[in-house]
From TrEMBL:
The modification O-UMP-tyrosine is found at Y51. Coiled coil: none annotated. One of its GO terms (biological process) is regulation of nitrogen utilization. The gene is glnB_2. One of its GO terms (molecular function) is enzyme regulator activity. This is Nitrogen regulatory protein P-II.
Amino acid sequence: MILIEAIIQPIRLSTVRAALEQAGFGETMTGDATGYGRQRGQVATFRGNEYRIDLLRKVILSLVVHDDDVDEVIAIIRAAAKTGAAGEIGDGKIFTIPVTDAITIG
């Protein structure tokens, strides 16, 4: 089994979750995150003054899938998380992590 963690823009969360559910991968966890990658934050203007926002809001979407489903899930997330036709800097990252065991509590 593989743990897939996708760091995506918050505005794309509902689209990504809907696409995963439609494909039969509805069991997901989400969490809030802040950070930056290549875009190094953003410059915003408030009441005529510019200021830098270093840490941008992101969402972490996590799900555990069978090894055979990894490529399909990654393709679904990539297609649904893009903000432009070709994707944009800041759309996110996907990580895959091997899971050696899963234990149910209770």
